[in-house]
Design a protein that fits this description.
238 residues; 4-stranded parallel sheet; alpha/beta; 8 helices; 4 strands; single chain
């Protein structure tokens, strides 16, 4: 486990080139998220931290078939800009960066790319363009599969059984529980008692670990299906 370099940036060019030649890393996960306010009690990196964690654990379970590429930390967060500290990207440039990352991987011979999202503000812009990307890659790289999902949607049935409130919510029970399990130093417990939204108080680290496990297991199953040739876009120009 210690020798598993599941982040592409940790590899040298020779290591990545030789791994591809050996048939490894045919699937890549690109975590996307945001740096934005998460009420008074969660660190602003929460969205990208969780997406990256789920991606990393999935890759470790499926090593050496899967690698995690660069986490795209900034997200589309204009609706949070009234809170200082939020970093918001414009939809067009953000989509261009994600597309360029996907295309770079496919040009190098990666067959499957899952954009694993951790921020709700990224969903609508991506949902409006992913069909066009499918058309493009169907013409340029017919064997490639490019998919976009938020990690909570892949594990929603299990997550909703574990939470009193909605999934994912924003810095509420679901996200707070996951942070308590993965990065408790990012949770300011005392601040949870000083804000109007009291739902984070329903969260626990034990619950959070179950939610994390559900997200990782669901993502692993989805990636395994991608590897098996499922989830390819049906492109019919007629």
């Amino acid at each position: 486990m210690q020798n598993q370099h599941v982040f592409m940036g940790d590899l040298t060019r020779r290591e990545f080139r030789e791994a591809l030649a050996e048939g490894k890393f045919q699937t890549a996960i690109i975590p996307t998220g945001s740096i934005e306010q998460h009420l008074e009690h969660l660190a602003m990196e929460h969205d990208i931290r969780m997406a990256t964690h789920v991606a990393e654990q999935t890759a470790r379970q499926l090593y050496p078939q899967v690698i995690v590429t660069l986490p795209i930390r900034a997200g589309i967060s204009e609706h949070h800009m009234r809170h200082q500290g939020t970093v918001s990207a414009k939809p067009g440039p953000w989509l261009s960066v994600v597309f360029d990352a996907v295309e770079s991987l496919i040009r190098h011979g990666v067959k499957n790319v899952l954009i694993l999202n951790g921020h709700g503000g990224n969903e609508a812009p991506m949902g409006g363009i992913i069909g066009q990307w499918h058309l493009y890659f169907a013409a340029e790289a017919p064997e490639a599969s490019v998919q976009f999902h938020s990690y909570w949607d892949l594990s929603r049935p299990e997550a909703e059984k574990l939470c009193k409130g909605g999934v994912p919510g924003h810095a509420q029970e679901y996200e707070t529980a996951m942070a308590l399990a993965v990065c408790p130093h990012n949770v300011r417990v005392e601040a949870m008692h000083d804000q109007d939204d009291r739902s984070p108080l329903d969260a626990s680290a034990e619950q959070g670990q179950k939610l994390v496990d559900a997200a990782v297991n669901a993502t692993r199953r989805y990636v395994e299906e991608m590897i098996a040739g499922k989830h390819r876009a049906a492109v019919n120009p007629e």
